[in-house]
Amino acid sequence: MTTREFGDIELRRVREHVWEIPQEGEMNAPARILASEALLEQIGQDKTLEQLRNATHLPGITKHAICMPDGHQGYGFPVGGVGATDTTDGCISPGAVGYDINCGVRMMTTNLTYEDLQGKEEELVEALFEAIPSGLGGGGVVKGDAETIDDILARGMQWALDEGYATEDDLAHCEDEGFRDDAHPEYVSQKAKDRGRNQIGSLGSGNHFLEVQRVTDIYRDDVAESFGLEADQIVVLIHCGSRGLGHQTCTDYLRRIEKEHNDLLDELPDKELAAAPAGSKLAEEYYGAMCAAINFAWVNRQLIMHRTREVFADVFDRDWRDMEMRLLYDVAHNIAKKEVHDVDGKERELYVHRKGATRAFPAGRPELPPAYADVGQPVIIPGSMGAGSYVLRGGEKSLDLTFGSTAHGAGRLMSRTKAKQEYWGETVQDELREQEKIYVKAQSGATVAEEAPGVYKDVDEVVRVSDELGIGDKVARTFPVCNIKG
Amino acid sequence: MGFTLREHTADVAVEADGPSLGAVFAAVADGLAAAMCDDIPETGERFSLSVRAESREAALFDYLDQLIYERDVRGVLPVAHEATVQQDGDEWVVDASARGVPFADVEARDVKAVTYSEMRLDPTNDGWESYVVFDV
């Protein structure tokens, strides 16, 4: 048997790209890491494995706690972590969802080609940067009063449709049609609503961005055709989440769990894994509040997409509909959802926690919209601003291996403090423009340094592992043209 | 007394010390400001805040959470922190103030939230030391 040791953790190789930390002591299940040798070597360098092992202590965790190929150290639950817990005798963990509830990505396709865009890159990046709120204190596309906030929390993209910021077709191409009907705005605190009020339709900063990209490679022609993707096409990728409203919601419930379920908290090895017992009043309230924050995040990305359409209409001097600017799909990667999965031949309802992991359902799952019911859902994997991004489709093996999940990005390799010592924002921008014809505009040069391409893992390797495991199949690759960030 | 930003793969950590609980709380808050901004201007008015919690660690968590809340709703970057921490029965009370630099005056980045991950708040021979990870 092949084994690897990282500190006090011994991993056993199950098969290619699958490693296991056997169940022992207080663990409620084994843990599995889905990685190549090269990715495992990187994953083993920080506290990812320790955090994954800690996650197996969650009550009711089913089969395995799982680390995706892009996993890295987070707080409590690792980023790239998937954990499914029973909805009757398990728990729901705000720490296993993360602060940025429904942080996610969406991709919008166009009928423009790279040739149509060449010569307009600078004008486009400046116009997008001007029109789309970003950074700290950048405001939002919409300034909401109390009624507006509650409406967004309750109805998600249906609110955007009624207000003229979305089309029926947008809703039909969003996870859950952009609306969680389990949302309960009354369980979101006033503090959270106060923070969200000025941020409706804003990118924020950190690793969030909007990127105009060109499709460079098609790997599966039939699936790409179903997704409306073809070589040389221009697409837009938007990555952001639920802003201060979601961050505050997670904080509020972590503190409530600490006060109301301290007995459970004492059994967990890390306070950030804070969990409410399934069936408790607090579990129901957190689920209702989290679903409301999910709705907020979908509206956030929708408003940014709406602004993007307006900018394209100005820059290319034609109606955005004539450019066929359609939402390909919007996927969440910080979320917990009640889903039914087959476990040892029995159907069970589970809270599937995905923290830095993307749902990757194959064809046939009832949750998929009609457009993708026969082909599998699109999965969008952003790379760094100097590398390619990928579009995958949910893989046949994902339900068995990962509760229908795959990676969410390249995964960070270098700390932000070290990145600022290694890189200088303006130099990174100049090199990307001169060497790669990528136009980057940011509120802060430090953000560019922190997000330099060299701080991320090799997205090609992450996607290769996903594809070879059959959890997310490669469909297309894209390359950046314009990037704006906070 | 002061703070140091420590490496963390995805987020940012602050290590701080001070001669009193209030001093180390304020030093962590200064570290939070440094994580958001490299060059802090001298502009802005001071404002006060107060939190009450069931333990010292919870008081530190709530204090930092309240600063992030004040940042978003006031539209300012809280800097130049001062704090006192006192026990009141079973609770700990933080009375604090900060200077709020208007966002228009500063180039700053977002920090999403304070976390309990790896949090330390320990007495030393000279006072107190703390370690806090923030979600970026």
From TrEMBL, chain A:
<dbReference type="GO" id="GO:0003972">
    <property type="term" value="F:RNA ligase (ATP) activity"/>
</dbReference>
<keyword id="KW-0342">GTP-binding</keyword>
<feature type="binding site">
    <location>
        <position position="208"/>
    </location>
    <ligand>
        <name>Mn(2+) 1</name>
    </ligand>
</feature>
<feature type="binding site">
    <location>
        <position position="333"/>
    </location>
    <ligand>
        <name>Mn(2+) 2</name>
    </ligand>
</feature>
<dbReference type="GO" id="GO:0005525">
    <property type="term" value="F:GTP binding"/>
</dbReference>
<feature type="binding site">
    <location>
        <position position="485"/>
    </location>
    <ligand>
        <name>GMP</name>
    </ligand>
</feature>
<comment type="subunit">
    <text>Monomer.</text>
</comment>
<feature type="binding site">
    <location>
        <begin position="333"/>
        <end position="334"/>
    </location>
    <ligand>
        <name>GMP</name>
    </ligand>
</feature>
<dbReference type="GO" id="GO:0006388">
    <property type="term" value="P:tRNA splicing, via endonucleolytic cleavage and ligation"/>
</dbReference>
<feature type="binding site">
    <location>
        <position position="239"/>
    </location>
    <ligand>
        <name>Mn(2+) 2</name>
    </ligand>
</feature>
<feature type="binding site">
    <location>
        <position position="100"/>
    </location>
    <ligand>
        <name>Mn(2+) 1</name>
    </ligand>
</feature>
<protein>
    <recommendedName>
        <fullName>tRNA-splicing ligase RtcB</fullName>
        <ecNumber>6.5.1.-</ecNumber>
    </recommendedName>
</protein>
<dbReference type="Pfam" id="PF01139">
    <property type="entry name" value="RtcB"/>
</dbReference>
<comment type="similarity">
    <text>Belongs to the RtcB family.</text>
</comment>
<keyword id="KW-0464">Manganese</keyword>
<keyword id="KW-0479">Metal-binding</keyword>
<feature type="active site" description="GMP-histidine intermediate">
    <location>
        <position position="408"/>
    </location>
</feature>
<comment type="function">
    <text>Essential for tRNA splicing and maturation. Acts by directly joining spliced tRNA halves to mature-sized tRNAs. Joins RNA with 2',3'-cyclic-phosphate or 3'-phosphate ends to RNA with 5'-hydroxy ends.</text>
</comment>
<dbReference type="InterPro" id="IPR036025">
    <property type="entry name" value="RtcB-like_sf"/>
</dbReference>
<dbReference type="InterPro" id="IPR001233">
    <property type="entry name" value="RtcB"/>
</dbReference>
<feature type="binding site">
    <location>
        <begin position="382"/>
        <end position="385"/>
    </location>
    <ligand>
        <name>GMP</name>
    </ligand>
</feature>
<feature type="binding site">
    <location>
        <begin position="408"/>
        <end position="411"/>
    </location>
    <ligand>
        <name>GMP</name>
    </ligand>
</feature>
From TrEMBL, chain B:
<dbReference type="GO" id="GO:0008033">
    <property type="term" value="P:tRNA processing"/>
</dbReference>
<keyword id="KW-0479">Metal-binding</keyword>
<feature type="domain" description="Archease">
    <location>
        <begin position="3"/>
        <end position="136"/>
    </location>
</feature>
<dbReference type="InterPro" id="IPR023572">
    <property type="entry name" value="Archease_dom"/>
</dbReference>
<keyword id="KW-0106">Calcium</keyword>
<dbReference type="InterPro" id="IPR002804">
    <property type="entry name" value="Archease"/>
</dbReference>
<dbReference type="InterPro" id="IPR036820">
    <property type="entry name" value="Archease_dom_sf"/>
</dbReference>
<keyword id="KW-0819">tRNA processing</keyword>
<comment type="similarity">
    <text>Belongs to the archease family.</text>
</comment>
<dbReference type="Pfam" id="PF01951">
    <property type="entry name" value="Archease"/>
</dbReference>
<protein>
    <recommendedName>
        <fullName>Archease domain-containing protein</fullName>
    </recommendedName>
</protein>
<dbReference type="GO" id="GO:0046872">
    <property type="term" value="F:metal ion binding"/>
</dbReference>
